[in-house]
Amino acid sequence: MENNVTINKAVSVVAFYFKNAGHRLKCFPKRMEYDGRRVEFTETGLRHPVQKGKSLVHVFDMTDGTADYRLEFDAENLDWRLVSIADAQLA
User: Fold this and answer.
1) What is the model's pLDDT at position 2?
2) φ, ψ of residue 90 in degrees (nearest 5)
3) Residue 91 pLDDT level (bands cut at 50, 70, 90)
């Protein structure tokens, strides 16, 4: 999807956490509340850590089947941020 809208707002996220072979927790967003609506994620795309200053931020590309969402999770502050939405209906 090419119609990308920058949001950059704090959001409420329900996430699952799993232990991997290294006994470290991995986080995966399941649902997000944004702008008064609930978004259920159906697939996880890319997931990668990024160093922002002294904080480690995990970037997630998610989809609900209609739109694509980029989320960031600040592991130090335990904050979620909706960075952008890409949606064909925004054209």
Assistant:
1) 65
2) -80, -10
3) very low
Buried-exposed string 50-81: b where 16+ CB fall within 10 A, e elsewhere:
eeeeeeebbebbbbbeebbbbbbbeeeeeebb
Q: Is 32 exposed, middle or buried (0-12, 13-18, 19+ CB in 10 A)?
A: buried
Taking CA 56 as the corner, what is the angle to CA 54 and CA 60, rounded to the nearest 5 degrees? 150
Helix (H, G, I), strand (E, B) or coil at 35: coil
Decide: helix, strand or coil at residue 68. Answer: strand
- In the numeric block, which tokens belong to residue 28? 């995966």
Give which of 68, 72, 18 is closest to 48, Cα–Cα: 72
Q: Which of 1, 6, 9 is nearest to 81 (CA)?
A: 9
Percent of the chain with pLDDT over 90: 59
pTM of the model: 0.83
